[in-house]
Amino acid sequence: MLFGDRILQYKEEFLKDLEYILRIESVDGEKNEECEKALAFLLKRAQDYGLPYELVTDKSVHIQLGEGGRLCGVLSHVDVVPAGNNWSVIPFALTERDGRLYGRGIADDKGAALMNLYCLRALKESGVKGKNTLRAIFGSAEETGMSDMDGYFEKMPLPDMAFTPDSDYGICFAEKGIIHLRVSTPTNEAKVLSQFHAGKAINAVPDLAYVMLDSSGYDEQLLMRLSDASDGNFEFNYTIDGLMIISRGKASHACEPQNGKNAAALLIDLITHAYDVHDIGQIVSFIDYALNCETNGRSLGLKMSDSVSGELTVNLGMVHIEDKTAEAYFDIRYPVTVSGEKIISQFKAVAEYSGLNVEVVHHEKPLYMEKDSPLIRELSAAYESVTGEKPSLYATGGGTYARKLGGRGVAFGPHFAGDPINMHNADESVDKENFFLHAQICLEAMYRLYTME
Predict the structure, then answer these.
(1) Does position 220 have pLDDT exceeding 90, yes or no?
(2) What is the mean pLDDT of residues 335-363?
(3) How confident is the model at residue 399 (pLDDT cuts 50, 70, 90)?
(4) Beta strands per DSSP E along 249-356
(5) Mean per-residue pLDDT for 184-211?
(6) 299-317: average pLDDT
(7) What's the whole-model pTM score?
(8) How do residues 148-165 score in pLDDT, each as one tens digit?
(9) Beta-strand runs (E) in 261-412
(10) What burial letters (b/e) apply to 32-52, b meaning 16+ CB within 10 Å?
(11) Strand residue runs (E) in 176-276
C-alpha cells in the first residue's frame, strides 16, 4: 500500500471540518475577522492533533512536523473571493450533489488547505520518522495580493523546497507575471452618466454591472435597439434618477478571462454606441477603444505570447464611477520571458493619451523553475506512484504562493483536467472522487519530502 492511501481513513472527519471552514466567509479586506477565524480553526485542530504551530502574523500561520534537515513547505490559503451571483446552492456552506462538493473555497483553496493539515496529522499518527522539517504554511490574503506571505517571510526563512496545491495537475513550472493597475481621472465630468459600478475583485471577470443615465426618450429607444444586436444580456429599468441598465455576464478567473463574459465591458460597448466621450466620461471612453471586449490586449498594443507560458491576457475587473470618483481596475497576466516594466510603460502611454492617471497597485514578476530540479522529480514520483501516469509540466496565468518562494517552489494540484471547478465563479465545486485522489497524491508528496535524503 502506498503511504498516500492512509489519508482515506480520515475522510469522514475531514468532511465535517470542511463543512465548518466553508461556512466562514473569509473574504480578505471585507471580513478580516472571518479570515482570522479560519486561521484560528486550523490552529485549534493542530493543537488537537499535537502538532506544533505558530501564529506568525495576523494573516499567516504555520503548523510543523519534525525538525532539522531541509525545510520543506506546503503553502495554501484560507481567504476566498466574494461569493458573487447566480449560485444554485448556498455559497458559504458545503453541499454534496451528484458526486460533487460545492462551496466558495472548496477549490480555491480551503479544501486543499485543510487537507494539508490532515496530511500532517496522518504523518504524525503513522509514526513516520522524518529526516527533514515539514511545515504547512497558511495565509489569509492570497486573493488580494499575497501580502500575507510578504509578512510571513519577513519573519520566517524561505523553505529549501516547497509546493502549493492551488492550481492544476501535473506540475506548474512557470507562472506568468501579474500586474494590477488602477486607472482614474482627477474629476468625473460625464454629463449623462451619473453612476457605473461593476466587480468586487480585480482578479475576476465581473458577472454584473449597472449604469445610471440621464437619458432622453430617443436615447433609450436607440439603446434598446442596440441591445438587441449585442452579445450582452441587458435589463432596462426606469427610476426617478434616470435610466438604469443592468448587464449580466459570466464570472471567471482573471487568468482565463476568455472563459467568462465581462458584464462591465459589454455594458460599456453598448453605451459608447449611443453617446460620445463628453456624455459618458474619459474612463468609459478609454475602456471602449483600448479594451472593449478583448482579452488579449491587442488595442492596447500588448498582444504578445511566448513558447513557455502562452499569451498575455487583460481583464477589466472593476469599474466605479459616482459623484467625483471615476476609476477602473485592470488585471494583466504577461508571459514569463517579457519585461513587466515594458507592459506598464505601454499601458500608461495609451491611458495618458486620454488624460488618465495610472497607478500600479500590485506587480508580481513571473516564476520559472528548471524542469529537472530535485523538487519536480520528487513531485513527479509522488504523482506517478498514485495515478500510474507521469504528470505533465505546464505554465499558467494564475498566481500562486509559489512565486513568493524565490524560485524554490511550484504549484502542484489539486485540480484534474476535465473537472469544471468554476473557480471565482458561481457554483464553485470539485468532483469528490478527484478530491480524495488529490489527498492521496498530496500525502504521498509530503511523505517523500519529509523522508528524502
Answers:
(1) no
(2) 95
(3) confident
(4) 305-306, 310-311, 313-322, 325-334
(5) 93
(6) 96
(7) 0.78
(8) 999 999 999 999 999 999
(9) 305-306, 310-311, 313-322, 325-334, 357-364, 367-368, 393-396, 409-412
(10) bebbbbbbebbbebbeebebe
(11) 177-184, 193-198, 208-213, 233-239, 242-248
292 vs 267: CA distance, rounded Å: 10
With bands split at pLDDT 50, 70 and 90, how would you rate the model's confidence at 1? Answer: low
328, 287 contact by CB (below 8 A) = yes
Instruction: For residues 60-88, give the mean pLDDT.
Output: 96
Question: Nearest CA to 424 among 101, 84, 180?
Answer: 84
Helix %, strand %, coil % for the chain, to 5? 35, 30, 40
Residue 224 main-chain phi, psi, to 5 deg: -65, -40
Short-list 424, 350, 355, CA closest to 202: 424
What value does the mean pLDDT take over residues 95-107?
98
Residue 127 φ then ψ, to 5°: 75, 25
Q: Is the peptide bond before 109 cis (omega within 30 degrees of 0)?
A: yes
Angle at 79 between CA 76 and CA 82, to 5 degrees: 140
Is the bond preceding residue 165 a cis peptide, omega within 30 degrees?
Answer: no
Q: For 107, phi and psi rounded to 5 degrees? A: -100, -30
- Gap between the Cα atoms of 54 and 136, Å rounded: 11
In which residue are the cell numbers 468532511 written? 15
What average pLDDT does the chain have? 95
β-bridge mates for residue 174, sequence order: 368, 395
Are 395 and 411 in contact, with CB atoms under 8 Å apart? Answer: no
Question: Closest Cα partner for 208 from 86, 66, 343?
Answer: 86
Q: Hunting for cell 499601458 — which residue is that?
A: 347
Query: How is residue 60 written as a grid cell?
Result: 499567516
Cβ neighbours of 339 (radius 10 Å): 11
Q: Could you give the CA distance from residue 435 to residue 421 in angstroms, rounded to a whole number? A: 11
Q: Rounded to an integer, what distance in angstroms lies between the CA atom of residue 203 and that of residue 93?
A: 23
Residue 187 to residue 10: CA distance in whole angstroms: 58
Q: For residue 200, what is its C-alpha cell?
A: 468586487
The answer to whether the beta carbons of residues 60 and 69 sit under 8 Å apart is no
Note the pLDDT tens digit of each residue in 383-397. 999 999 999 999 998
Burial 127-138 (b: 16+ CB within 10 A, else e): ebebebbbbbbb
Sequence letter at residue 132: N
Nearest 5 degrees, angle CA 112-CA 115-CA 121? 155
